[in-house]
């Protein structure tokens, strides 16, 4: 492994609609990160990708780039440092009334892709279950926002950044 300072999250790579890195982005980075990629452990490669693309890469993309199972990617831990956000279970559950208010406000469609099925209400920031802190996402986009895992790193730091992310 090349000895270098930890990279800052990459915000300039080509990304999908929701801002996530592609397999090509991941493979390209791994090729520059390690002198001998074949000698680098899968664990080291996974941690490098999680750090480099900080919350902007899905488990499936990491698994494809590293050539391993998605379940293995989930087992390889990396905790973000100070100033980074990691998803935690919201402190309050969403009442049925508030959930319906949020679904109605968002036109009963995913605010990211426009899907009208498998809708879920997402806590934008940990804390209150109020409409201003909630958004409607389909199951796929909801999981993507969590970095491909329900316990993934969030790719935004504020409510405004969340809306910028889903508005493209």
TrEMBL record:
InterPro entries assigned: HNH, HNH_nuc
UniProt keyword annotations, A-Z: Endonuclease, Hydrolase, Nuclease
HNH nuclease domain mapped to chain residues: 97-143
Protein name: HNH endonuclease
CDD domains hit by this protein: HNHc
Organism: Halogeometricum rufum
GO MF annotation terms: endonuclease activity; nucleic acid binding; zinc ion binding
Domain of life: Archaea
Gene3D superfamilies documented for this protein: 1.10.30.50
